[in-house]
Amino acid sequence: SSENAVNRDDDDTSGGKGGGTYGLKIAVVTHGAAGDAFWSIVKNGVEKAGTDLGDTIQYSSDGDPQKQAQLIDAAVNQKVDGLVVSMANPDALKASVEKAVAAGIPVITINSGAARSKEFGALTHIGQDEKVAGEAVGTELANQGVKNVVCVIHEAGNVGLEERCAAVGATLGGKIQNLQVDINNLQSSQSTIKAKLQADTAIDGVVTLGGPVANVAAAGIAEAGSPAKLATFDLNAEVAKGVQDGKILFAVDQQPYLQGYMAVTMLTQYKANLNVLGGGQQVLTGPALVTKENAAQVAELAAAGTR
Amino acid sequence: MTSAVATTGAGDERVARVGPLTRLLLKPELGALIGAVLVFAFFAVLSDVFRSASGVANWLDPASTLGIMAVAVALLMIGGHFDLSAGVQTGTAAITSGILTTYYGLNTWVALLLSLALCLAIGFVNGYLVVRTRLPSFIITLGTFLMLQGLNLGVTKLVTNTVQVNNFDQIQGYGVLKTIFASEITIAGAPFQIAIVWWVLATILGSWVLLRTRFGNWIFAVGGDLTAARNVGVPVQRTTIALFMTTSFAAWFVGTTQIVRLTSIQAQAGFGQELIYIVAAVIGGCLLTGGFGSAVGASIGALIFGMTSQGIVYAGWDADWFKFFLGAMLLLAVLANQYIRRFAEQSRR
Amino acid sequence: MTSAVATTGAGDERVARVGPLTRLLLKPELGALIGAVLVFAFFAVLSDVFRSASGVANWLDPASTLGIMAVAVALLMIGGHFDLSAGVQTGTAAITSGILTTYYGLNTWVALLLSLALCLAIGFVNGYLVVRTRLPSFIITLGTFLMLQGLNLGVTKLVTNTVQVNNFDQIQGYGVLKTIFASEITIAGAPFQIAIVWWVLATILGSWVLLRTRFGNWIFAVGGDLTAARNVGVPVQRTTIALFMTTSFAAWFVGTTQIVRLTSIQAQAGFGQELIYIVAAVIGGCLLTGGFGSAVGASIGALIFGMTSQGIVYAGWDADWFKFFLGAMLLLAVLANQYIRRFAEQSRR
Amino acid sequence: MTDAPLLEIKNLSKTFGTVISLAGVSTTVRAGEVTCVLGDNGAGKSTLIKILSGVHRPDGGELLMNGAPVSLGNPRAALDAGIATVYQDLAMVSLMAIWRNFFLGSEPTKGWGPFRRFDRQKAIDITRRELSSMGIDIRDPEQPVGTLSGGERQSVAIARAVYFGAKLLILDEPTSALGVKQAGVVLRYIAAARDRGLGVIFITHNPHHAYPIGDRFLLLNRGRSLGDLAKSEISLAELTRLMAGGAELEELAHELARDPSTDETARLYQEEAKG
Amino acid sequence: MTDAPLLEIKNLSKTFGTVISLAGVSTTVRAGEVTCVLGDNGAGKSTLIKILSGVHRPDGGELLMNGAPVSLGNPRAALDAGIATVYQDLAMVSLMAIWRNFFLGSEPTKGWGPFRRFDRQKAIDITRRELSSMGIDIRDPEQPVGTLSGGERQSVAIARAVYFGAKLLILDEPTSALGVKQAGVVLRYIAAARDRGLGVIFITHNPHHAYPIGDRFLLLNRGRSLGDLAKSEISLAELTRLMAGGAELEELAHELARDPSTDETARLYQEEAKG
Ligand SMILES: Nc1ncnc2c1ncn2[C@@H]1O[C@H](COP(=O)(O)OP(=O)(O)OP(=O)(O)O)[C@@H](O)[C@H]1O
Ligand SMILES: Nc1ncnc2c1ncn2[C@@H]1O[C@H](COP(=O)(O)OP(=O)(O)OP(=O)(O)O)[C@@H](O)[C@H]1O
Ligand SMILES: [Mg+2]
Ligand SMILES: [Mg+2]
């Protein structure tokens, strides 16, 4: 019964094989946990750029700043041609990034750490702080009349997630409280969200910080019979569907694919041609809001892991 | 020699009398049960939603899947072993079923059987390596834990290009699966998950096996004194492997429940849960060194954990301090449990 | 009776002869050492950067801080206990020093002493609860682990409004701290972290304490047979508490190294590391049940772990499969270790 | 077949690491006879019986049961061959109840298929009966074995082996921790087993326990055989002398007493030594 | 002070959960004398000595040392009061080397301040010397105790207690696992300790071991005292009878033998019983 194969790719959204022959070796060192939805899209982006341009990509990541610094050191040791780094904790990476720059390796920072990028000697920064995306969510929710928000943190103490929640609160103008759930046990996360809504019926908005949590939050809101509106960071196929169905008000998309793809492309162009897009100014990849109007278009792409 | 045949049982002058209450208090599960009652009372006072039917249904839900795993893990722990790969195996089960159906179009039941076979095979390998190498199960299952974690992510990425498998609700036969694994039973107006029923059944089965079968006797023996067990002819290797496979079966069951409930599964699902299973078993009175414990106790441990983690939310405490409260509650529960047992032991003189 | 006084030592007809090589192979650390050599050889073949001076400096770096903790944790494990809170205590130490200086303006040295005192107090509480309640240390330190995790986050958020403490390099005396905790020593053109020196010293000290002091004798006894140790008058409680405090001291040292190196610290720092410490100790031959193991072994375990985790990067393997390779390497290392010991035991006949 | 002894041990040897525990030891055990193994501490007695009960595998030598070579790869194999053993370290699980230990590895079951279960009541009843017929009056079969006194534990182990022993019963110092009464009961048990036609291997340090009941005596010293003799070839006095030297015993009694001249024990030992 | 006995035990009692182990037991131990505690299995002998060595705390009764009441809260306190014990379960750590076990809890040190360390060489030398003077020829003091034979382990425990015993030496069935030779050595040790002026409490099931050396006999039965007698008040025959009944022993010897009429052991037991 091959009708079971509801997820089989029928058309390829990856955009051809590419024919680049740059042959550079580029290391990408991020702070995203292995298996994190957002960072897996970034990884897809850098790898696609690698195939398109004919570069060799070495992607590694660790949420612990010291380990991330050691991974950068390892890349520098290997004398890579370019380095892409996300800086959730810039201070911790300072020494390692500067060492790379000193070794003559061009560095581009992505996602977080925009403010310190220049100082450490990076060519440019792609993407924006979580703050910008968070503020966009807060503003939009305020526009929708939401006043009492619970922000669902799925990894306690994660710098990026905390920044997102704080930024939502900054522009919301209402009350915001955090709620902790376990991303690795979504079923119990759903119970926890439900418990929060049952316990505090004044809540009229829920913000989740990743696609998978958004889906269980939607189910939790429904089961608790709460009127709360749901917004989320980051996309995945189910989120796109949820937005289409009206279960999710909107999703904010930082276009992680682009952060990865562009970083590799710009490094390649720099090595080949000493080009720097924006002349060293920060290059923004978002935030783009995915709402009911445009959700249908990105659903397919999200399922393919590029949005 | 006047062979002093026993005046059977009753009325030995060397045996002091003991009240039935004290006797009850001495059972390990009962200490845990009192801990559970305390935790319940505590949160019930703080929040009336917590003690409402829908509140109870809500916190019984996470307790139920945790409880099913805790019972299997308790059996394994009584048998003297750990399974650090138990958590990720729930993910492996769900991911395998999901990919086989939604990507490779296999028949739903065939796919479920294949993922069950895979889990049992993993359990077998865990057990086989443990008995053959005589290395601690902690280190062996740590190896399989890491490998499965990598496999779950690597395979999911490879097949789906994302880190999750979706649309499980669109396969044929999903309705039946939903009835078995994820239907709801309405009691007092609140929807109770069917997993709660499975949990109760698992506890009864686990208890029965432990206390009423020869396999149960072997479990206690293997965990209590491996050399002695081997010397009296207990099939040590078979028992150990069977225990690991039981844990894997439970992981398959819970993993399937998850993908049916959520209709999708994350590559990292289940990661880190293995410790919570062990915690539930230990709160319920299982010895970490093996040879002692009970299935009922492990279930109550799961209940305490479920109530505490949801109760903190009902009580409306600051999320930043969530782990602090969780830790404090756990510590208080086990300390209370211990104190009650000591007290009972004192008073039985 | 002709009191058969011993023909001292040498030349007992019941003792078979054994080569010095076999004797060497039987030491637990040596098995681990061979595992380490295998892992090194493996990655050295795959990547020439791995075996270059700068490569070595790079993978010795994570091994060093892990190794310092692993030695302390090994002592604790030989004494029959676990400390699940060891990882987060590194965070607690660094956060306390960071907040006390950069937010409350305390003198650097006073702040460091206060955070040391705090860590030692945590270790004391862990040990005290374990000896008083006689509950397994696993469950007690799980409680403190969760509580500290909550405290680290809660306090950091409360004081800084963010989840990290920054600008530690701007406190007075930072230069001295940097020299002690985070300076680099250049050998063969590659910068080696001073933590490596501390690691070596910690290993030597740990080994010396274990094998050459009475405290070391007590550690083996307490972990090997608690009742026997108590019966012959070993100060069981004091020994246990001292072991927990030693682990806390190591956590303080490593935490301080971190904040000095990174000049900032995150609220979740150290979380999850506790298991890796235990893994390193176990790879190095420590028994999970206590009473057996060595500091050198634990250090080699840390080395294996450090080489493997960095080696996978040097080998250029796909990060999605990282955990898979890590697990496979660990399993291979312990299996090789075990195989070598078996082989040595066979051949010594 | 009829002529072959129940068990024949030929040139058995065993080395642990650097330690040679057993070197070329031979003896025979016949059905309906008791073979006593005697020897100093560390002579290798326990090692010998551990090989016979499948715990250790020998490094050299041969085992014949009823004339046919057997290999006892594990304790289960030995049990299945009808060999039941009381180990010196008893092989009991301290945390488990007496009745569970009694039937460990040979649990009686009732019911069928998936409902086959441990027949608890039967197990408890048999345990109580077997122990009380040994003069051990257990208060509660649910008591964990770990809380029994040394001698009580020993009695449980012996009762178990006697109950399950089919062809060959091995007892490693079963009487050492026992009171005079209980030791008497054990010797009676051994005699009863022998009279039922079982072969028995009995290890002891007490010549007074060994001689009355033994039919064959294997004397070990530092892993080697000092002699393997039938009862007709040796007297109690000789046996005692071989085990310790009679003159020495006599001397000892003198030495221990404060005033040897008036001590009656000395006389007793003297007499004993004379045989 | 001079008149007060080294240790006086008054009305001691102890209950474990539902089990009454000891109920109102009294006796005295004088310096330079041996008090033997005799009794069936489970009589409460080990419980008594565990109270004396600080392992258990009594539920009732009093302990006086040199006339002054003492409370032995833990084993360290007992050791510091000069009481050294050989436990029935030996209190040794199996995984540790012989010499480490020997000095466990009382390690000799050298050096000072932070460099104070376990004096290894001294410990190893003393261990080897003390053991070989007991006739135990250890091959390697580094051997883990767990790999020693039962009797070897026993000897190490005894050698340790004798070495560290200051005022009162307690031995719980020290000879039960020992060969005839080694048992003789232990008895000699006890006599030597006594002659050095130590008080000794000696537990055994063997009247032949107890009588020659004992000055006082405490007979326990099911937790209660059957009598607390000086040597002058009792003969070996009586003692043996009290412990098991002489007639029964005789009968047993008959029973065990295949052909009682010709058996010399029966005669021997008869003689013994007559005293
Ligand atoms: N597993 C082992 N590893 C190393 N050596 C061992 C092991 N088992 C026994 N030995 C050694 O073999 C020798 C014989 O031991 P065994 O236990 O057979 O003696 P035994 O005759 O039973 O003595 P006892 O009368 O004291 O019980 C001893 O010296 C002992 O140290
Ligand atoms: N920790 C304990 N818990 C429960 N009961 C115990 C405990 N220790 C001893 N007992 C019980 O107390 C009684 C006396 O035990 P004890 O060990 O003192 O006997 P004993 O005279 O030394 O016997 P043996 O000669 O067999 O060594 C026994 O019946 C035993 O079951
Ligand atoms: Mg023996
Ligand atoms: Mg006793």
UniProtKB/TrEMBL annotation, chains B, C:
Presence of keyword Transmembrane? yes
Question: What residue intervals traverse the membrane?
Answer: 30-50, 62-82, 109-131, 138-159, 242-263, 275-301, 321-340
Coiled-coil annotation reads none
CDD domains given for it? TM_PBP1_transp_AraH_like
Q: Which domain of life is it from?
A: Bacteria
Q: Which InterPro entries match?
A: ABC_transp_permease
Q: Write out the annotated subcellular location.
A: Cell membrane
* Keyword DNA damage in annotation: no
Annotated keywords: Cell inner membrane, Cell membrane, Membrane, Sugar transport, Transmembrane, Transmembrane helix, Transport
Pfam families per the UniProt record, alphabetical? BPD_transp_2 (PF02653)
Note the topology in the membrane.
Multi-pass membrane protein
What is the role of the protein in this entry? Answer: Part of the binding-protein-dependent transport system for D-xylose. Probably responsible for the translocation of the substrate across the membrane.
Provide the protein name. Answer: Xylose transport system permease protein XylH
TrEMBL record, chains D, E:
Q: Fetch the InterPro entries from UniProt.
A: AAA+_ATPase (IPR003593), ABC_carbohydrate_import_ATPase (IPR050107), ABC_transporter-like_ATP-bd (IPR003439), P-loop_NTPase (IPR027417)
Pfam families cross-referenced by the UniProt entry: ABC_tran (PF00005)
Annotated GO MF terms: ATP binding
Name the chain's protein.
Simple sugar transport system ATP-binding protein
Q: Which UniProt keywords apply?
A: ATP-binding, Nucleotide-binding, Sugar transport, Transport
Where is the ABC transporter domain positioned along the sequence? 7-247
Which residue ranges does UniProt annotate as crossing the membrane?
A: none
What is the top-level taxon of the source organism?
Answer: Bacteria
